[in-house]
Known about the structure:
Blueprint: H1 12-36, H2 42-54, H3 58-71, H4 73-76, H5 82-101, H6 108-131, H7 138-148, H8 153-170, H9 177-193
Helix pairs in contact: 1-5, 1-6, 2-3, 2-8, 3-5, 3-7, 6-9, 7-8
Amino acid sequence: MSETTVPRPSSLPARLLRLYGGLAMYGLGIGLQVESGLGNGPWDVFHQGVGLRAGLSIGTVIIIVGALVMLLWIPLKQRPGLGTISNVVFVGLFADAAMYLLPAAGHLALQACYVALGVSSIALATVLYIGAGMGAGPRDGIMTGLMRLGLSVRLSRLLIEVTVLFAGWLMGGTVGVGTLVFALAIGPLTQLLTRWFPLT
Length: 200
């Protein structure tokens, strides 16, 4: 283990800190990318589109969709953990708080900064909350459930994200260069961060 690696926490308080810190950063990352106006990640294109149609905040939609997605875990034989339930409740709350508090990104340079910080925050959030070992997020559970049915990680994720991206775009969710940056950068960034915040 290198000197810069942060070992996976074993005590419950440390794991809870990692879980809820990760969920807070996830909400912040969503807020940054949405407020950039340059395009959201696939799921947040969907959340935004539903919110526009239903007259709800993005955070509220995140919570509702997360709860509904968990119903799909039943036929996929997935079991939720504390991290799963917390993800459903807190990511949406943190996302709405971030969008309320963040200053408007009125200049292209600030918009680009929001995208970069948003994607980086979501990548770090992912390794933090998954590394806490307290259950996958509801949307991640669909992917792992499809993998159990014989689909590859790449195909499972592609099917899910293309579906929600297209549906969200049809409902008015923002798709743009930020969406492309998210798609290209989130995987490599998350993989890089596992060097310092291992998942196992």
